[in-house]
Amino acid sequence: MKRRELFPILGAGIAWGQPSQTPRFFTAEQYRTVVAVADTLLPDDGDIPGAVRAGAPWFIDTTLFYVPTARQAWLEGLEAVDGEAQREYGKKFAELSEAERIAVMERFSQREDQPQTAGEHFFVLARRQVLEAWLLSEAGQRQGLRYRGNTAVEEFPPAD
Amino acid sequence: MATKTSTFDVIVVGSGPGGGIAAYALTRAGARVALVEAGRRLRPGIDYNAHGNVYEKLEARLKAGFTHPVSSVWRDFAEKDHFVAVGDNPRHGLLRALGGRSLCWAGHSLRFGPGDFRRWPISYEEVAPYYERAERLMQVHGEKNGLWNLPDGVFEKPVPMRLPEQKLKLGVERLKARGRKMEFVPQRKAIPTERKPGGRTVCHYCGNCMAGCEVDSKYTSANTAIPLALKTGRLTVFTECFMRRIEYDPRSNRVTGIEYVDATGRSSGLRARVLVLACSAVETARHLLINGLANSSGQVGRNLTSHFGVTVVGEFPDLRTRDVSNDDGTDYYHSLLTGLYWDSPNPKFEGTYQVQCGAGLNPRRLIVTPAGFGKGYVKELIAANAAHASMNMQGSTLVTSQVYVDLDPVRKDRWGLPLPRLHLHYSDSDLAMARDMVATCEEIIRVAGGRVLQTPGEIRDAKSLVIDSNHWVGTARMGTDPRTSVVNTSCQSHDIPNLFIGDASVFAANPEKNPTLTNIALAWRMSDLLASKLKKGEF
Ligand SMILES: Cc1cc2nc3c(=O)[nH]c(=O)nc-3n(C[C@H](O)[C@H](O)[C@H](O)COP(=O)(O)OP(=O)(O)OC[C@H]3O[C@@H](n4cnc5c(N)ncnc54)[C@H](O)[C@@H]3O)c2cc1C
Ligand code: SF4
Predict the structure, then answer these.
(1) d(Cα B482, Cα B492) in Å, to the nearest integer?
(2) Pick from B105, B192, B127, B183: which is nearest to B155 by CA?
(3) How many CA atoms are closer than 13 Å to the CA of B517, on its beta-carbon side?
């Protein structure tokens, strides 16, 4: 495991088992938005590590690098997020304050049961994939869920 | 064309639960058996292993061409584009591997009861000894509940219900006190919970059963039946060998062997005194139809039925703060709602249903995704999942002339054989049953003090129903009349005396219970009857 400063604006990021934090599918610019989105959706919360500390942006970038299915949806979604940030605040999403980022996501999450706009569709996709990445991460499982399973042992006589 | 030929007493085609047990019982009875399996051997822990740090394995998995981050024998290796669907979205599961779908089954093992066998040409008492043998070999855990139509078996100690499932039980108790007929019992699964000499390893509750049990605790034919059959020295296993044709001699009216294609594409022949087909209900019917055999009744592919259902999820608010850190258990379902309409049928529909119930928080299987995001989201996620119980209903689809398997006139598989075509059209009875399922489950949740979190609501049409793609049965049904059935009570073709069927095609009727334990018991019984015929020099 390697530790290094990722984007100072978001605090420390943990790079998970990967040689470097350089994105392979996203451009550096897009990746900055991905990290900001992940951090807005699942921020650090007390003892519970958030999506960025869990390594979700790396997980998503790596998956998209190999599996094309969701590529288009991510790229369109990032455009929608940055577009909204630009319209409302004249900045990129990653440059917004925490409160501003939350406000953008709140608008996109209004109709999560029946998303209509590009931004709303993106909210559903991003939350699902960020959450999945978090749930599968060591940090999410151990510190977040305080989950003790997920280990193959030869025998485990259950306690009576 | 066949290039080389070997001779056996029996060829068994298909190594799933049915074919695996046939190979086991026949070799132990002294027969020399060839087990022919289209798939390869998938190694636990190597070809499938859902344990461990997903991040560390991600790159290698994706590089190898898998698209899902977590290893699963079912998701990674199940066949695709292997059938044609007609009607109400039929689906059909197939895993070509040594062990077939026993590699990914959940292990739920329920005996059919005397009431269920009323619609069969054999009785519960005739099958009971084979249930007992099967349960011992498979190491089924469960609780003795004394229910007349879900008979008790030989069980290892049961796995406890999780707290939300105990709430559902409370709901059922309350409804029973008001005179309703239903029962709520712990699940029964082919997963050891007790150390036994010569037994498989005891389950460690990782909840990965359907992704494949990498420590070989859960019963599969690849980890128990086939290795034991190999020990007899009388079994030869042909993996990656697809049976393309059944050899039939019209003069003697006997099948004489098969032609198969191996991994290199070369075809060869095998000869035997007897052929047992255990390719699964859909595939066995397909091969009989392709070869034009054993179908004087016209019933091959007919009488097709599976289970269908819907899911209702409830939440018990007082359980939101419970500790969920380690209750994955043996896969998901630890409990079962049963005993509905056994004694007095519901006039609105035919047959009945059961409901598999589960709970718990497993990071690889999230049931409740709360709305929203941001600070507090994870806490809500944990609370909502800690408090949830899910009810997955399973009723048998009505047998009608609208539900069957035939051959697609155009589309072919990679061996040049016509694909099977599955026709599914739900009947009004099915829809009425689904409505009753939803109402009953919602009622149980409410009576137990919970609230309904997810429900299909009012069932208007077949769109809200989900077919179980893995429980198809009935396509070569058993009967005493050769005009209306395909095999006799020994699972022997009425038409061709040395052709037997070792899978769930032979089911004469399909109760609400999961099929595989009965499939195994019947294949075992068939093998005993067949072995005694072989000893007498028949065939
Ligand atoms: C995820 C999942 C969960 C399940 N859970 C349960 C459960 O809890 N309880 C339960 O009762 N059932 C369960 N089932 C269903 C159960 O797995 C099937 O009922 C059972 O495997 C059927 O056994 P079978 O021997 O008929 O067929 P299969 O297991 O499908 O095996 C058939 C084998 O035949 C081979 N074959 C087919 N055609 C040919 C050919 N031409 N040449 C050579 N080989 C061939 C196939 O490759 C395959 O390996 C589950 C299934 C799945 C997928
Ligand atoms: S829960 Fe038990 S039987 Fe299922 S995969 Fe894990 S160890 Fe195997």
Answers:
(1) 11
(2) B192
(3) 34
Of A40, A43, A55, the CB nearest to B55: A55
Tell me which CATH homologous superfamily contains domain B1-85+94-105+220-297+474-539: FAD/NAD(P)-binding domain (3.50.50.60)
Put simply, the chain B residues between 237 and 296 with a CB less than 8 A from any chain A CB are none
Encode B77-98: b = buried (16+ Cβ within 10 Å), e = exposed.
bbeeebbbebebebebbbbbbb
- CA dihedral B46→B47→B51→B55, nearest 10 degrees, is 100
Q: How far apart, in Å, are the Cα atoms of A138 and each of A131, B53, B388, B450?
A: 13, 7, 24, 32
Q: What is the DSSP letter of B388?
A: E
Cα–Cα distance, B312 to B489 (Å, whole number): 39
Burial of B371 (0-12, 13-18, 19+ CB in 10 A): exposed
Sequential DSSP letters for B2-30: ---EEEEEEEEE--SHHHHHHHHHHHHTT
The token pair that represents B372 in the structure block: 């929203």
Q: Residue written as tokens 């008790």?
A: B152
Q: Is the dihedral of CA A101, A106, A108, A109 positive or negative?
A: positive
Alpha carbon distance A158, B10 (integer Å): 42
Question: What is the length of chain A?
Answer: 160
Q: What is the pLDDT of residues B192-209, one digit of tens each?
A: 999 999 999 999 888 899
**Cα dihedral: A19, A21, A23, A29 (round 10):** -160
Q: State how far the Cα of B99 lies from the Cα of B96, in Å rounded to an integer.
A: 8
What gap in Å lies between CA B293 and CA B139, rounded to an integer? 37
Residues in A touching B56 (Cβ below 8 Å): 17
Residue A9 or residue B53, greater confidence: B53
Q: Do B59 and A18 touch (CB under 8 A)?
A: yes
pLDDT of residue B324: 77
Asked if B86 contacts B164 with a C-beta cutoff of 8 angstroms, the reply is no
Contact A158 B207 (CB under 8 A): no
Question: For position B364, what pLDDT does the model report?
Answer: 87
Give the list of residues 6+ apart from residue A98 with CB closer than 8 angstroms, or none. A40
What is the per-residue burial (b if ≥16 Cβ within 10 Å, else e) of A77-97? bbebbbebbeeebeeebbbbe
Query: Quick one: which atom of ligand 2 is closest to the CA of B107?
Result: 3
**What's CA B59's distance to the chain center, in Å?**
33
CB-CB neighbors (< 8 A) of A127 in chain B: 373
Which ligand sits closest to the CA of B242?
1
Residue whose Cα lies nearest atom 47 of ligand 1: it is B96
Q: Closest by alpha carbon to B521, among B96, B132, B123?
A: B132
pLDDT given at position B118 = 97
